Amino acid sequence: MKLFVQRGETMTFACIVALYASLLSGCNGAKQEAQSEKNTMPVEQGQLATKAIPAPLETPRRTVDAERAMRYVQDQVAFGRRALGTPGHKKVQDYILAKLKDEKVEQDKFTAKTPVGDFEMSNIIAKFPGTKDGIIVIASHYDTLASVKNFVGANDGASSTGLLLEIANQFHGKPNPGPEVWLVFFDGEEAFKTWSSSDSTYGSRHLAGLWEKDGTAKKIKALILLDMVGDKDLNIENDDNSTKWLRDTFMESAQTLGYQSYFYKREQGVDDDHTPFLKLDVPCIDIIDFDYGYNNVFWHTADDTLDKLSPKSLQIVGDVTLDAVRRINIR
Ligand SMILES: [Zn+2]
């Protein structure tokens, strides 16, 4: 992923000034909006008006097992590099499929043309039933950066993928009391040479194209992208490109669970796997901590290792995501 304000691999002075200004201007306090769906009470004789009451949130609340999610992260890192064309990439693909063996799984396989040749890629989609029309997508990318030596992507790739596998456990055998939930493991997020609209997000661009053609895109109520969510020092960005009501929904969930201090200290635009879906008017949010180590110093380096992560961060992001799904259910 990339910040919109960023050009190349180093920050320009203008960019730093812009970031500083956004910090000074403060966080984007989320509005405490009432639940949008209204249940109307039946009007009885003599009653003057109907009363709107919020639809109940699903109870009990779902929560992730963060220790188990962290083990999934460790398993992926143990495969080593997971860039396209490496043995680790095949291993993580097989690992995801094995973990999802009891679920309804589809693969979107395609050949991607990249600046360094053609690669076979595969998006993995696990579908969980719901009780209403529509689809909620929760997504992560599982490939890792190719261009940095000894890059194992503990945070960038493994953290969100491990958490998504744990989220799968939470929906296993328990239909969502709302839209269907589809968990999408994107391939080919990373650029092969330099991040650009044509060299990045290969998997999400392919799936968005497919879902535009077959009408699926129109059925998606929300797409929640998780990326770099394991940092011990968790600071989830307030991504300007993400859909406003989803950003508000996530803040409501964070506040409900007492985790609001981990969200939205910084507001800026992020280009990531949600971009192709935003272009199709799918409501999207990117839950990303793009401040990995001081000044993002561990990002895309061989220092992106397990010791920088904590299960607590996976707990926070996992539980806030599951709470947000409850709120999307009743929209
Ligand atoms: Zn990356």
In short:
The protein has 331 residues and is an alpha/beta fold. Helix content is 33%, strand content 21%.
Can you describe what's shown?
The chain is an alpha/beta fold. The chain has nine helices and twelve strands. The protein is globular, with a radius of gyration of 20 Å. Helix 2 crosses helix 4 and helix 2 crosses helix 9. The chain has two domains: 41 residues, no CATH class; 285 residues, Zn peptidases (Aminopeptidase, 3-Layer(aba) Sandwich). The strands form four sheets. Strands 4-5-7-6-8-12 form a six-stranded mixed sheet, with helices on both faces. The relative contact order is 0.19. The structure holds zinc ion. Zinc ion (ZN) binds next to loops.
Mean pLDDT: 89
Secondary structural class: alpha/beta
User: End-to-end span in angstroms?
Assistant: 29 Å
Bound molecules: zinc ion
**Helix amount, in percent?**
25-40%
Beta-strand fraction estimate: 15-25%
State the major sheet: 6 strands, mixed
> Quaternary arrangement of the chains shown?
single chain
How are the strands of the biggest sheet laid out side by side? 4-5-7-6-8-12
* pLDDT < 50 runs, ≥5 residues: 5-46
Q: What is the number of beta strands?
A: 12
Work out the radius of gyration. Answer: 20 Å
H/E series: EHEEHHEEEHEHHEEHEEHEH
SS element count, helices: 9
The overall number of domains is: 2
CATH second-level architecture of the largest domain:
3-Layer(aba) Sandwich
Shape: globular
| Assigned CATH superfamily of the largest domain | Zn peptidases
